[in-house]
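new request in #modeling-help
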Amino acid sequence: MALFKLEKKAPKGPAGRWDVIVTEDMCKACGFCLGVCPVDVFAWRKVPNRLGWFPMYVAHEGNCIGCMLCYQVCPDFCIDVSPKAAAAAGVN
Amino acid sequence: MLATDLGVKETLVAPWMDWAARYTQGRRLLEAGTYALTEGAIAAGCRVFAGYPITPATDIAEYMSKRLPQVGGYYVQCEDELAGMHACAGASLGGLKAMTATSGPGYTLMHDAYGWAITNEIPLVVVDAMRVGPISGITGAPGQGEFYIARYASHGGNFETIVLSPASVQEAFWLTVDAFNLAERFRTPVTILTDQVISDMWEDLFIPDDYGALDFVVPRKHNLAMPFYPVGSDALDVPPNVVGHGTGVCVSAYTHTEEGYDIEEMEAQWAQTYRLVNKIRHHRDQLARYETLGLEDADVIAVAYGANARTVKTGVLETRRRGVRAGFVRLITLWPFLDELFERDCRYLVCELNYDGQLVREVTRAAPDKRKVHFMGKSAELHTVAEVVAGLSGIAAAGRIPELPYIWTEVR
Amino acid sequence: MNRLAKKYLRPSQIPTKACHGCGIGMIENWLLQALDELDLKQEDVIFGTGIGCVGRQTFATWGGDNFGATHGRALAVATGLKLAQPDKKYLIVVGDGDAASIGTSHLIHAARRNLGVTVICEDNMGYESTGGQFSPTTPAGYVTNSSPYGMVEPGFDPCDVVMAAGATFVAETTATQWHQTVKVVRKALQNDGFSFVHVRFPCNENFGAYALGTRDTVKNLEWIYEHTQGRKTDGSETDFAWETGVKRDASNSRPEFSRLLRDMNARVRADMAAKAQAKAS
């Protein structure tokens, strides 16, 4: 079984309840978050950041199921994933 | 005979003249130089010794292993001198005064750590009890082969160093306290260059009773705010940085900013070097320690430091008694080199315990006429009074040192 | 930005100077999680690093007190520092060059003394900062910048070295075992003694380029994953596999080094007081 998933699945479970932030100015475009994510959240920017890389950005935040794999794998401290305030308060 | 009998002026410039005059309550012992160096460190507040045993500094390690637990300090016998010096630097970073002691073979292993302490402005004292070389040489014989190494105690340039050398057991005690004080005030490692004779010989030693009541000891203070490294400034008495008080200080091997993290800009290199060099160079007046004799009318001045200065001084006095106007300079501060002691335009006889000639090169550079600087090198034994008399008399009479067995006079 | 980076790191120094796709930042992320889970504050922890990729890219990222020693000597500095500041947690983050090559002597003696630090040996299997020469942890036969005909020297595992020296906590993980690494570092930090955590991670620029034939970050992390599992994506066996997990957990089973010295001091001073008492009476 591979680490990186080329095929993204449709989101199940707690999708749409997560805030996903990528600090694009810190991204070095390694591609790990996009690769490890099981659903379709990330995409590449077409414009470089101030470090000179074409960073990742959050294209479809609503698909995030909160698996936190991207948070674990990012080598540049760019990503934060946290429950949306409403979800945390128990409102679905 | 005494200098006073001969009517020559004798001066000793050192801060401990005042200390010895004011602190007269204590014990008189017959002890070795290593004992004096140890007690001087304890009196100055040293609480960590990390090193590796090596002749002739082994006794310092042994005394420290006994004394430090008695005063709440720590003795660490490290796996090598490299680790020892680094551990001392670490302990000093954590807020404890630290010292290590070694000889030539260990001193050369400390150069990496020495540079780390210099660049991060960490106060430390390093005793190098020199012996004849190269390398292990003769284990039980004195040498003075680390004169330049102590100045250039690490690689990369862009720094100054402070190096002191005692010539008696009593002086070793006071000078060690002075070394710790300078380390604190200048935020730098200080080398005490001693030799096998001073380390191992037994002499009269006075030790003041109450170490807690010594008002001349500079206590350890902590720098708790930015700038951690006042680059671009030559200020003294900046408290040492401390790790473990949550200040966020960075300590590293690289050229660094005021905060301490690495930076690769020319401006930063300039500012850092400005501080490391000028904090010492601009305060040379506070670092001058020396002894002189008869400089007011000398035709030939003998120059020496450390153990062999003892016999050289006697030789100078004997030569005076025989009618030659001989003078004497004993360097206590070796670095920064005291150029101002060599302004007199006369002949100089540099007596060193090495054959390759090291101190003589500095004297030649500082003296007004390089053709009038002579070298009398000897290895593994101190110069005898007779040799010194013969050298001084020969120079005064004919401008050259007579042929003497095992005395080296050539410098290229 | 990663919330723990905000909590613990020095903003001017992140993202690190590491190359893109390097494992150093990933591992640091997991270290922060371990610290956070143990409720440690920035002032409770001191980072010590060395020279080389791991040392350089980790140095100064920590927002609290930290030092970057000369090559291989972080543990020697820590030996002295621990005496002066015994109550802090020490994370000594060093590479395979620092720990398993130039600094092995200090590693052995710190383990022997049971110095109370946690060594995170981040191993990219070569001297990558200087361009990719082999190191004592480079796998056998691999081509590197200084083994163009394949690595002929036998290598070793620093875990074996520290275990032989008496380390009280030894564990090994890789850069694709994030949860395991966080757990293992948590355990390591709770050992009042010498803890050694060995984490293998990918280098794309040098090891990847010369030994693995590609700088593709995804392919190189996949290579780490395969050698962690022992199986390639197509199901075949890899040429070797790393044995990961906790190798020894003897946490808190023997006294920590600075405690030994403090206890000795207490004994000596009690003795002195008793003698003075006896003399007085």
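bot summary: Residues 43 and 56 of chain A are 6 Å apart (CA to CA).
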